[in-house]
């Protein structure tokens, strides 16, 4: 059922991109960017994610121990983990996958800036703020950065029919190569794995 829903979402995104291209005379690449812009604009929201207190405590205690090497302060760790879990859940992503992406992207440094200007935990490019009409958003704010990053990764997972390596390569801007996605998979396997993810192509 979940796989069917993912396939349906992916098909709708491709149809939307095709419609945008035909309607506005855009190239396929520009149409994909416009589809992602519209997806972000309609999905950047805030909410809680844990429904069961026991499940929350088990997950938070487990992940907090794993995160200690990056975030020494216990209160900061728990706050960050709650934020990550919420953003991942809203985007239908495994929180452990998001943790692996953050480890590779920024090593949990909210003020990290890449050589091309990507910012924050999930290394989001600032131009997306203007693209979706939110120029005042602060990408060094964890909640904001996680919302953007998780929604962008969700978009690419839907577009790539749930194939993690292809979606991660698109997220990183390295489509057609496996270096980045292999790093994320390794981080997930060594540090964050709690249950299986399908890494097969």
TrEMBL record:
Family of this protein: Belongs to the transglycosylase Slt family.
One Pfam family in the UniProt entry: SLT
This protein's UniProt keywords: Lyase, Signal
Organism superkingdom: Bacteria
Descriptive protein name: Lytic transglycosylase domain-containing protein
Organism: Congregibacter brevis
Keyword Signal assigned: yes
Record EC number: 4.2.2.n1
PANTHER family in the record: MEMBRANE-BOUND LYTIC MUREIN TRANSGLYCOSYLASE C, SOLUBLE LYTIC MUREIN TRANSGLYCOSYLASE-RELATED
UniProt keyword annotation of Repressor present: no
Residue ranges of every copy of the Transglycosylase SLT domain listed in the record: 84-177
GO molecular function, one term: lyase activity
Signal peptide location: 1-22
């Amino acid at each position: 059922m979940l796989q069917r829903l993912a396939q349906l979402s992916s098909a709708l995104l491709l149809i939307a991109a095709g419609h945008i291209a035909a309607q506005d005379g855009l190239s396929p690449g520009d149409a994909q960017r416009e589809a992602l812009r519209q997806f972000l604009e309609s999905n950047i929201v805030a909410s809680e994610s844990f429904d069961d207190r026991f499940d929350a405590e088990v997950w938070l205690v487990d992940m907090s121990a794993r995160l200690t090497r990056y975030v020494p302060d216990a209160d900061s760790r728990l706050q960050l983990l709650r934020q990550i879990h919420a953003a991942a859940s809203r985007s239908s992503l495994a929180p452990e996958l998001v943790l692996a992406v953050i480890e590779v992207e920024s090593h949990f440094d909210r003020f990290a800036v890449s050589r091309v200007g990507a910012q924050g935990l999930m290394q989001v490019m600032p131009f997306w703020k203007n693209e979706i009409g939110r120029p005042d958003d602060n990408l060094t704010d964890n909640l904001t950065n996680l919302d953007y990053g998780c929604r962008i990764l969700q978009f690419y997972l839907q577009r790539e029919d749930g194939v993690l390596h292809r979606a991660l390569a698109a997220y990183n801007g390295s489509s057609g190569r496996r270096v980045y996605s292999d790093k994320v998979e390794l981080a997930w396997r060594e540090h964050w794995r709690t249950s299986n993810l399908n890494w097969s192509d």
